[in-house]
Acetyl-CoA hydrolase
Amino acid sequence: MTGKPDQHQQAESIADRIIERLDGRIVLGLPLGLGKANLVANALFDRAVKDRAIDLEILTALTLEKPSWSSDMERRFVEPLVERLYSGCPDIAYAKALREGELPENIRVSEFFFVAGRWLAVEIAQQNYISANYTHVGRYLIDRGINVLAQLVAKRGNGVDAEYSLSCNTDITLDVLPKIRARRESFLLVGEVSSQLPFMPGEAALPAGEFDFILDGPDCDRPLFVVPRAPVSMADHAIGIHAASLVKDGGTLQIGIGSLGDALTSGLIMRQRRPELFADALHRLSPESAVAKRETGAFETGLYAASEMFVDGFMDLYREGILRRRASDGAILHSGFFVGSDAFHRFLRGLPEEERALFRMRGISFVNELYGEEDQKRADRVNARFVNNAMMVTLMGATVSDALADGRVVSGVGGQYNFAAQAFAVEGGRSIITLNAARQAHGRLESRLVWSYGHVTLPRHLRDMVVTEYGVADLCGKSDRDCIAAMLAIADSAFQNELLDKAKSAGKIEKDFTIPSDCSRNTPARIAEALLPLRMQGWCAPFPFGTEYTEEEQRLVPALRHLKHISASRRLLARAVLASLAEDRPNHEERAALERMQLAAPTTLRERFYAKLLLWALRRSQDR
């Protein structure tokens, strides 16, 4: 650490100085997600590619990449979207080299969390993956000899009075900095300034003297990477309503990213604005006996958030007056990192500083663990509902969230284990795992509630609450037999008998057990029927909080997703092609969608085929 940072306007000059200071042996830490100093990282990568005497190891997670395509149909949708949303966003160079198998031997890249599904087919990425609880990552970075940490930062002030905010990624940086400084080893902290990042005060703000190098100049100020909000299906909305009925007024909340997080947010807002409508929806979705002890009233005290990720949904809950209960230090939210939509980033930038200070960015050890300031955390985190998503859950309550049975990693453990364990430790705490009961895969429907699986993320002794669109299974403290019965009640009816037979064969449930009659109609059609009155009143919309997608793109997203599902089956695809030949002329809205895909006036046989098939998909995906 120097008295003041060495200021640069070119990333290449910082790279040269780093290589000189560290004699060409660089262990580079890059924050998870949005907070990577992409320009500095790319400059170091470029130097190492050109000079094989440089040894570069990169340790990071959640490498954000612009959307790509695997077919001409996808290209027609994605290419204009990338141009509109990501123009000027710097790509991260190591990701392309990894994907193309061109990573030089003197460069190694390891991640502890992947963007879901993005690296399944890249063997070198799978081989170098580090399985870690989020709270352990800082220790692993230090053990691996990290000597550079390069981070995107926000700036306030100039010269000796300048301050730099870690903004979107306090998570690992705040945890490792004091430990590394105490060792008095060679270490460089590099900040890459972005005017688009909100200046988050409190622990996130560091004096200029903490940094060794600062990249700051007009040519370096790039747009932020955005994550458009995903469409929310009717099944997602049903899950959101169920989960929202488990949240206690005056309690604590964690929300995950994606459509299920938005569905929960939407359910909480419905409960706040229209408690009677919310209660009616809950009864439509579940048997009377299943909802007797649920929460349906509006929030009088409000909620406090302790969530490793500060997601868009917390912005919506704050605006609605639901997120307002203050913790011991006056914050209404503690979080370790954020990345979100453009609207979310603008929301944070636009807040007055005293209001922005209500959202406190902290080290991940503070958010995800009780250790350290434990009395304060226990007092703040009463009646916590830690809501996390999963890929699968076994009938005896083991959760599968990060990897497949063959060992390939889909995403990562992150903080899921931390929060599941924490739920058992805080007063009134509950861990809630949410997932759709079934999914379309390889052209067929597959149950996501399974008898057993070859890999687990959370062992069954941490089983607590599981929520699907068909209801809530409370597994906490229950016997294996009772867990199985509860899980069968929230499984898709297409798979209930098969799952029950496996449980009976294993001797884990009585031979004469039958599926209760009020759980035997667990079908997508019943969910659609139950939520239709809400949809008619403007609730349960595909994009309840808006989106970066245009109106045409909003119609195209489910249609293209439907086409992708059926394309995995030759039989289903053949049926769709034959059916599409009978489609009549598109209406005004359908024509606008075809124009967006450059298919409104097809000139080749392939384009005519695409136009017919897409029109067919648009008409069959409207209510999905």
